[in-house]
Design a protein that fits this description.
single chain; 581 residues; alpha+beta; Formiminotransferase-cyclodeaminase, Chain B, domain 1; Alpha-Beta Plaits; Four Helix Bundle (Hemerythrin (Met), subunit A); 3 domains; seven-stranded mixed sheet; four-stranded antiparallel sheet; 18 helices; 14% strand; globular
Length: 581
């Protein structure tokens, strides 16, 4: 994903990177999870489309199914998806397929998911373009589901897939089940495929200490949204309760937007609750886990761990880690890596195999294409790079890094205070401060590399051709935009570093008294960050043609300088009074 900075918001105070590229994710499920040579040929076909990023390949032996995840621009994605569907139809014979998971085709489902710069409605249009192309080129029936459905009754994938592969010959003879694209005839080798557009779905399995599918299903019925059929007396053998229309009455489960079944996985020797979390706002991952845990406990079973199928958004893991930290009455203001570690251990995601956040979290996969070389360096390497003959990193990056160190010290004081034994009842108060500090620290670390990027943007603009009048005009516009970018990045550093004084002052006033000098050093660092960044603002402002903008920025900068000086002086006074300086 390429980012083109649109430098200022209407109030000319905040950077607004504009995502020019639309991104969608595609998660096709192929009915082969045992023969890796077949899976590799399918993923090779997908990756043959330049510009596609293959994020994950997750085969399952028991389900005999592989979930593939890739992202890219819409047109590239549907071309890659088409090639994957075509290759699967060539290599997989559904007449010989068996597995634990419901399925109806060699490519069973192929959902498209909006990721960035694109709406669900636009994503559904691309799903139809894929369906039209595949239906025209391949001898396979295609049904559209979820947001791409052509009829209300086809929105639900379970309805579309009812009868599975074995029921297709009869289903295709029914006019009500004419495919949306492709021929209305049975393809014994490839079956049928559902293509859709949907929100991000998490496929999640929770492991139980039982081999009983019946007992696992009892837990699944407790937690899934549609629950179970109500019976008289609450007995599994009781008469089914019906409504006035003769339809069975259902007792809803505890988790909204969750589908779940119980199954036995021979590969692991345990039963699992297999869930699809279709709306993580309704039921977050950790809530689904806890609901299974509570049900299993009531029924005499134990949850031993869980597994994620495919990738998961970063926020899901952070929310889970923070939830379990709060249960322990611990500060949530720790590093992102620590929060994820808590989530992995609490959910038991490493029970059945290693869990690598770099491979399983979608944002981390995408970051691999947008490296941040400076903040990935160790201390010596960063110092050596700064001291080299290269003009970047320079004062702007160092200012951002110094600011990050300053707020890190205050965050440390907050975390130490939250763990102070005599302040056990204040863990949440200090944890909130620490969480704010972590957010400021992370933003300043991001700006370390962003400042160098802004310098490089100027160099790129200056090196543009300037032969023709049109080229000269384009070059001048690019230099102006890059110069404004080089102003707004250090200006942002000033804003963020100044915001760090809130936590620095608070920790000097109410934090662990044994760490008062750490808050003091933090104040010195934050002040240095604001002053250092303002130097970069001023040096780049001299080259900008928009003098009105320059005047506004410099005026705001002077106010921030005074505010930083005042805040640092107040903190230093508190420190000196407490340490007797």
């Amino acid at each position: 994903m390429k980012l083109f900075p649109v430098i200022c918001s209407p109030d000319k105070s905040k950077i607004q990177p504009k995502i020019m590229t639309q991104l969608i994710e595609c998660v096709p499920n192929f009915s082969e999870g045992r023969d890796m040579t077949i899976i590799k040929q399918i993923t090779d076909a997908i990756e043959s489309v330049e510009g596609i990023k293959l994020l994950d390949v997750d085969p399952g032996k028991a389900t005999n199914r592989t979930v593939v995840t890739f992202v890219g621009e819409p047109e590239l994605v549907i071309n890659a998806a088409f090639l994957g569907i075509k290759k699967a139809a060539e290599l997989i014979d559904m007449s010989k397929h068996s597995g634990e998971h419901p399925r109806m085709g060699a490519t069973d489902v192929c959902p498209l998911i909006p990721i960035a710069g694109i709406t669900m409605e636009e994503t559904a249009e691309w799903a139809h373009k894929l369906g039209e192309m595949a239906g025209r080129e391949l001898d396979i029936p295609f049904y559209m589901y979820e947001s791409a459905a052509t009829r209300p009754e086809r929105r639900n994938l379970a309805v579309v897939r009812a009868g599975e592969y074995e029921g297709l010959p009869e289903k295709l003879q029914n006019a009500e089940w004419k495919p949306d694209y492709g021929a209305a005839k049975f393809n014994p080798k490839a079956g049928a495929t559902a293509i859709g557009a949907r929100d991000f779905l998490i496929a999640y399995n929770v492991n139980l200490n039982t081999t009983s599918v019946r007992r696992a299903n009892s837990v699944a019925f407790d937690v899934r949204e549609k629950g179970r059929v109500k019976r008289e007396g609450g007995s599994v053998t009781g008469k089914i309760v019906t409504d006035k229309n003769g339809e069975p009455v259902r007792e809803p489960g505890s988790c909204k937007s969750v589908k779940a079944i119980g199954w036995y996985i021979e590969e692991y020797g345990v039963a699992q609750i297999s869930m699809n979390l279709t709306n993580i706002k309704d039921t977050p991952l950790h809530r689904a886990f806890e609901a299974v845990h509570e049900s299993a406990d009531r029924r005499g079973m134990r949850v031993t761990g869980s597994e994620l199928v495919g990738l998961v958004p970063l926020k899901v893991m952070l929310d889970a880690g923070k939830y379990f930290l709060r249960k322990q009455k611990r500060s949530v203001g720790v590093s992102e890596a620590e929060i994820i570690k808590i989530a992995v251990k609490s959910l038991g995601l490493d029970e059945l195999g290693a869990f690598d956040p770099q491979q399983k979290i979608i944002e981390y996969q995408l970051r691999a294409d947008r490296p941040t070389p400076l903040i990935e360096m160790d201390l010596r390497a960063f110092a050596d790079e700064t001291a080299s003959e290269s003009p970047a990193p320079g004062g702007g990056s160092v200012s951002a890094y110094v600011g990050a160190l300053g707020v890190s010290l205050a965050t440390m004081v907050a975390n130490l205070s939250s763990h102070r034994r005599v302040w056990d009842d204040r863990w949440e108060e200090f944890g909130d401060w620490a969480e704010k500090g972590q957010a400021i620290k992370d933003e300043l670390l991001r700006l370390v590399d962003e400042d160098t990027n802004s310098f490089n943007a100027i160099l790129t603009a200056v090196r543009m051709p300037k032969g023709s009048d049109a080229e000269k005009e384009a070059r001048a516009d690019a230099i102006e935009a890059a110069t404004r970018y080089a102003i707004d990045i250090p200006f942002k550093v000033m804003e963020v570093a100044l915001g760090g004084f809130d936590i620095i002052k608070a920790m000097a006033e109410i934090g662990n008294p044994n760490s008062i000098t750490d808050a003091g050093v933090g104040a010195l660092c934050a002040r240095a960050a604001v002053h250092g960044a303002f130097m970069n603002v001023k040096v780049n402002a001299g080259d900008l043609k928009d003098k009105k903008y320059v005047k506004e920025v410099l005026a705001k900068g002077e106010k921030m300088i005074k505010a930083a000086d005042k805040a640092e002086k107040a903190v230093r006074k508190m420190v000196e009074e407490k340490v007797g300086g």
